Amino acid sequence: MKVKTFTFQPYTLRTGILEATKNLLLQLYSSQELDENQKSENEALLEILDNHLIDVNAYARCKALQGWTSLCEAEMLPVKLLLDILEKAVERTLDKSSYVRKDALKFLKTCLEHNPFSGNLDKEKIGKQLEAATAKLIKLQGNAGVADFSVEEVWETIGKRVQIIVHKALAQDLADKENEPATEKVAEENKEESDKENKSEEDKYEKHAEEMEKELQEGLLKAGNLLLDEKLEEAVQLALELTKKMAKNEENAKDDNEDLQADLMCTLLKAALTAVKPETADIELPKDVQVEIKKKKETIQFLKNCLQISTLIGVASENVRMLLATSQTTDLVEAIDFIASAQQFGLLSEEDSALKLLEFLHSKDLALKKAVTDACKKIYLSSIDPEYNVEITFNGYVEAMKKISSMVHNARPCFSKSIALLVQTWVNHGSINNECLFALWEMVESKNKSECVPALHTLSIALAGKPNLVQEKIATLDKIGFGSRGEGCFELAKWAAAVLCHATPKITAETLTNPFRIPFTDDIFTHISNLLIKGVFKLGDKDYCGLAGYFVKAIFKTCLKPLSLIEEILRKMHEEVRKYNPADYPENKNNSTDAEEEREDVPLTQLATQETDAPPTQPTDTPPLVESISHVVLLRYVYVIGLVVEELHTFIYEDIMAEIRRQKTLVELERNRQRMRRSRANTTASSGQDDDEDGSLFDIKKLMHSSSKYFINNTEEENLDALLRLCDNEVLFKDNLLGKLLTFVQDCFTSRHCHHHGLRIVAIQTFGKYMQLSPNFCSKNLLKFVTILAKSKDSRVKIACIHTLGDLLKKFPNQCEPYSPFVYDCLKESDSNVRFEALVVISKLILSDMIRVKFQISSLARCLTDTDMRCQDLARYFFATLAKKGNILYNLVLDMISQLSIEYSESNQTSFEEIMNEILPHIDKDKQVVALVEKLSSRFKDKAEEVECYNLALCISKLPVTAKSVHAFKEALMESLPHYADKLKYPTVKSKFDEIVQMVRKQMKAEGKDECEKWQEVLDSCAKGKDSAKLAIAGLAEAVQVEPKEKRKAKAPRGRRKARKDSSSDDDGEAAVAAPKTPRAPRSQRKKVVDSDDDDSIIQTAARHKRKPAAKTPATRKQAILEEDEEEIQSPVKQRRVRGKKIVESD
């Protein structure tokens, strides 16, 4: 039955035979009761599948792997072949064909899920079980008087651990010797004296040789028994003593090489195992002992097979990690699925397997995102998935949620967004259902802090978009998060506030009901206010800034009158900050920071502490009130002000605009209902909220309701302009609390009394948030802001200014773009952190199309050779991404080459080469490459210095050349030969052009290689002198026949057609020859047509050409009027046309 399939040349025939072989194995030879002929046929068919795993054709290899996968799924794969096939499949994971890699990963995954050995293939656990089983077998055989074991197998089991213990024992022995130097010297002196005396007594040693040999054999036997009993440390100590005794009787008694001593001790211990094994003949044992020994041997063989499978899958896991770096979607999907299966069998940890996959959640490929979601679901939620577990209890939900909450809460910051996206995807797909959310709420209500905080953190992600579930648990949040437990743990209160932020649904134009809001007099806001105010002075708790952010956000999202509540909180906080006395908070002494120890007096102006009627820009007559306040307390206070301004910006431009759209929708519905009964003038907006907003920062709601017609009848742009004017007139320059605090914030980073860098940074960030409220206020204060960026010597202050200016460029690009060069200047700073942060901001703005990069591209290119590796990596990513955005990089590369060539003309030539190596390969379009060759070649004629010419030749050599563009590339260079012929006298330029010729020759076929040789001869001639260069250029033009590019023919107008053949042509069939057309004269040489005195001349001319007279636009009319006025001034006779009549007037 054996078929020689390798003799069949067509791969389609081989794949068909492999498919038939698989079907025969599955259908005819699936029975366990096979006779000898059937067994031989079965082995022959299996051999066919085995041989074609290394077939030369990829499709045949795929068919073979698919056959083995089907056999493994049917559990028909023989165990004796499993390890061999598995090893070959691991090699196929690195196959050059993606189809083969895909099928190989499928086979490995199937082998894991249907392996006949164990459900847990953890290598460490299996190794320990194998050692224990081997020790039990040896002990059982020793008790029976039979040592039927292999020394090599036993040493393979315990050898690594013995080597580690040996090195530790030698290191400890060496340390003991160093601690007793005097004793060692005395011992050496005694040894020398004893050696002299013992020379005469050498005969005594010979007599005692037999006794020493017996002592050595007894020690070896004892050490071997200790090894078999798993007493490795005692065996090593005994071997160390035997080694010392052996060393005393040798001439070279002392050997300082630790490795040699370790090898000697390991050899001695291995010999001890040999000494334990008796050389007697086989002994008949009782049947029960024989059965037990047989079971132990089968267990050991079973564990060895498990260990081999675990080792092979470990090698496959390393290959899979390499496949995760590919861009092939099929490879990525199978690799992700394999990682999930490997984790289930204990080959990978949960954290390692999940973190490797999280980066693919942000991919645009839906299949890849689905694969990652399903794989992570298999890792974390398999215990509550009906596909893997039929009986699911509430404790199972709790355990699964504990695992999820631990992953969410303990994740590193770089993975937090990816994990949040994963949890939200699970919630949207129903993998985390209501039972899971109920289990999380049960964990929240527990008194265990280690369960409550992670559960709240997970709920803050899972409940996004589920406001009804949050509204039901507001009382629980108030009790647990904002009560006494929240005062003792700011982290608990922070995540409770994060959950509360989801209580209000997002307002849209289709929302007909009034949004959910909690009255600001509710107890929950009372508790939040107390925590927010008192937390400013608890300097030991580091979670206050995060808590304040979520508290302010929760107030603006859920409070019915957020502005009134925020004003009340800021006023109370301001009073408490003024009254702050460190003696009232003794717990802060133990938690004082370095910044607190170096604190200085900070001025608090009277304008920021007292209510006055004068606007903040006007100076007051009373002197400023200066108080000594903790910098950390003041920093937290300014930070809260910044949070309020930031959330106020969101509240105005998002929430208020959404409310206006909702009101428009309600008005339209009301008009449709009452169109016949009520006029449009009496239509008003129906809002179910209270219009009384007394005490707020500014009555935005009252303003909107009082002028509802104004907002509702206006367009979106007009409403946005109205809100901008509102920010200018109400928030920043009117007599309100935020306007007063603005001056105080400016003092915190401009005053001479404030030297605390943390306070200055927070004040700068807060001032930047003020500037984002209004473009007018931003443009007025930009110069002050940029001055701080340019003159500050503190790198942390510079970084804060860079990020704030980046936010302003994104918000108001027109006002802030003239100041963008100040950010580019930060790329030249000596501090690497400043350069990196500036590069981060600039790259984000450019890639998001917020600013245009022009001549500053050279500053970004210098970052490719920065000393900081972070800047280099980010610059590479920036240029790789910029190259994908149309022709931006192509349009900028010439200016960049010119600037860098001048800069690196005298020094740092290697830096210029490194930059070009990174940037020029990104220009991969054939037309752009040829165009760059022409432009760079034309610049040789303007260059005189050797370095500049070398840089141009270097840039040409770094351009990517493909088989399609090589002919155009060669022709462009050969046509441009007159430009660089005289520059080939420089050896460096000549060497680069030689490299270019060799590069072109590799890409050319046999026909074009002759032209390359002639081109090389011409270059060699040009390098000798002018005369030979002229002759070589002329010879090249004749031999190669380089023709200039033809100009693109002008396209004929669409309305015109080709002239038809004359119908009166001759009968002999010859085509009529058209008369040659005279070329049209240029516009400047054409005769001007003088208008006739006839009024209808324009109409007649238009009728003659069958065209209508061109309609005059307002701009042309204005130009005509101006020209007519000039004619009136210059000419004594002026003509006017009135309704088709020409009137001539003379002076």
Which terms summarize this structure?
single chain, 1147 residues, mainly alpha, two-stranded antiparallel ribbon, 53 helices, 4 strands, globular, disordered C terminus
Question: Can you walk through the features of this model?
Answer:
Strand 3 (1134-1138) and strand 4 (1141-1145) form a beta hairpin. The chain is built from 53 helices and four strands. The protein has 1147 residues and is an all-alpha fold. The protein has a two-stranded antiparallel ribbon. A two-stranded antiparallel sheet has the order 3-4. Its main location: nucleus. Keywords: Cell cycle, Cell division, DNA condensation, Mitosis, Nucleus. Residues 797-956 form the Condensin complex subunit 1 C-terminal domain.
Strand arrangement within the widest β-sheet reads 1-2
Average residue-wise pLDDT:
75
Q: How does the helix and strand content classify structurally? A: mainly alpha
Radius of gyration: 44 Å
Helix and strand arrangement:
Elements: H1 11-27, H2 36-51, H3 58-73, H4 79-92, H5 98-113, H6 123-144, H7 151-179, H8 181-199, H9 202-207, H10 209-228, H11 232-248, H12 258-276, H13 287-323, H14 329-344, H15 350-358, H16 366-380, H17 394-409, H18 413-429, H19 434-445, H20 449-462, H21 467-472, H22 474-481, H23 484-488, H24 490-500, H25 523-534, H26 544-558, H27 562-578, H28 594-597, E1 602-603, H29 606-609, E2 626-627, H30 631-673, H31 700-706, H32 708-713, H33 716-732, H34 737-750, H35 757-771, H36 775-791, H37 795-811, H38 813-816, H39 821-825, H40 832-847, H41 857-862, H42 869-882, H43 888-903, H44 909-919, H45 926-938, H46 946-958, H47 966-975, H48 977-980, H49 987-1003, H50 1006-1022, H51 1026-1040, H52 1097-1104, H53 1114-1130, E3 1134-1138, E4 1141-1145
Antiparallel strand pairs: 1-2, 3-4
Helix pairs in contact: 1-2, 1-3, 3-5, 4-5, 4-13, 5-14, 6-13, 7-11, 7-12, 10-11, 10-12, 11-12, 13-14, 14-15, 14-16, 15-16, 17-19, 17-20, 19-20, 20-24, 22-24, 24-26, 25-27, 26-27, 26-30, 27-30, 30-35, 34-35, 35-36, 35-37, 36-37, 37-40, 40-42, 44-46, 45-46, 45-47, 46-49, 49-50, 50-51
